Amino acid sequence: MSFADLTRLARGQPLRMLLVNAGEADSLSWAGLVQPLRVAQRLVGHGFELHVRTLAQAIGESDEDWHIALLVADEHLPRPLDAPLRAVIGRCRAAGYWGGVGAAVLWLADAGVMGGIRIALPWALYADTEEITERAILTPHLFEIDGRHLSCCGGAASIDFALTLIDSLFGAATQAAVKETLCIERVRSHDERQRVALQARFGALQPKLSEAVTLMEANIEEPLSTDDIANLVGLSRRQLERLFKQYLGSLPSRYYLELRLQRARQLLLETNHSIVQVGLMCGFSSGSHFSTAFGTLFGNTPREERQRKLAAA
């Protein structure tokens, strides 16, 4: 399921969203989420009901019907899963779509309600995930949607997460108006990676894996072969493939291709290089191969991606 599937929530009725702040009121995770949504609420009017609660307020309320409910917490404020917090988690889970932002994602996983779900967790909390890796699937992405479950690593990514929700729920025009109001030029996609997430998670335990990913990131324009990468990090091809499959859920070649395509998408949105130049800069000697691979991963062609940028401008 993708963020595009959220569009049906806003049809024919006011969309009701609950945000529960279990951290500091001035944290970046909270401000980055709530400010774009409040601007959207003013623009949409009666079609969007945004309800903001502190944890104490949410504990004292009765159950209500929410289309989306999110629990938000600063990553530096760990909290034991006491009975009141579990009750709030239960209320959030009753919503059509629900999840967490920042440290709250870890709380949800600790509560056992994210079993088998792909989650985006703040990289700084990766050291606390040993007991939940069998219950949730950690990804290094900025934010995720998996079925009815939403998660965001928090921090500055909360802004991208909120703007992606706005686009999915109310359309590109509303998102563009919010971006203009907040002076935001670019929205990062959900599958962009936290820059230090892989190193934080695997650097000590799997240095060979971390080294392989670093080689890929440093050789986007002239990609290395899987055999070359394996030789450079001192592994056999089979050992390298086993590491990628076990920890990243992908083969090295597929992971490398996605890295190059992510870079290509960034260049299409942030530079004026031609589509051919972008393809060459990301290791694609064939324009048709670049277009096909890009479309398979993102659902649109490089030309459509560039046109979207021009339309937004």
Automatic annotation (TrEMBL):
One of its GO terms (molecular function) is sequence-specific DNA binding. The lineage of its organism: Bacteria, Pseudomonadati, Pseudomonadota, Betaproteobacteria, Burkholderiales. This is HTH-type transcriptional regulator ArgR. The keyword Transcription applies. Keywords: DNA-binding, Transcription, Transcription regulation. PROSITE patterns: HTH_ARAC_FAMILY_1, HTH_ARAC_FAMILY_2. SUPFAM superfamilies: Class I glutamine amidotransferase-like, Homeodomain-like. Residues 210-308 form the HTH araC/xylS-type domain. The keyword DNA-binding applies.
